[in-house]
Amino acid sequence: MIDDDFVNMVKELQKKIEREEEETYSKVVISEYRNPTNFGFLKKPEAVGMVKGSCGDTMKITLKIVEGIIQDARFWTDGCGATIAAGNMITKMAKGKTLQEANNMNSNQILDALDGLPKEHNHCALLAVNTLHDAINNYRSLGGK
Ligand code: FES
Predict the structure, then answer these.
(1) What is the residue with the minimal CA distance to atom 4 of ligand 1?
(2) What CATH topology corresponds to 4-141?
(3) CA 68 to ligand 1 centroid distance, Å
(4) CA-CA to 36 of 20 to 30 Å: which in 30, 100, 113, 125?
């Protein structure tokens, strides 16, 4: 049986972790990674991108594309919280964009939308952008427009 001291210790630890997160990350980053609405894979996607970042973490993005417009997008990653936030943000931002507009997106736009990331996590936003671009490139290389 779990005693009250143990339960309280776990609760305190959880609060400590949450406080540290709030000191390190913006409110947007915390909300995106605690509730990543676009996490997962689309069934029968038109485009798939997968990139391994400089840190060794991987992201995968699947896209639904109709007449050159991104109708839907999902991401998956085994990376950190910042990567989850970046993946969720980029898939939200990509929806409704033409392939060209999405291909012109850069990591600064993701960092701005997230209200910044700690410097050592800027590469997480770059991983998200590179994965989106990889999906578009793969789609185009198969003749998609
Ligand atoms: Fe690896 Fe964020 S992508 S630390």
Answers:
(1) 80
(2) Sufe protein. Chain: A (3.90.1010)
(3) 30
(4) 100
- Strand ranges, E, within the chain: 47-52, 58-66, 69-77
For the sheet with 58-66, list strands across it.
47-52, 58-66, 69-77
The Cα–Cα gap between 86 and 26 comes to: 12
**For the chain, which residues score pLDDT lower than 50?**
none
Which pLDDT value is given to residue 1?
Answer: 61
134: left (phi over 0), alpha (psi -120 to 50) or beta: alpha
Residues within a 6 A CB radius of ligand 1: 53, 55, 57, 79-80, 82-83, 121, 124, 127
Structure pTM?
Answer: 0.90
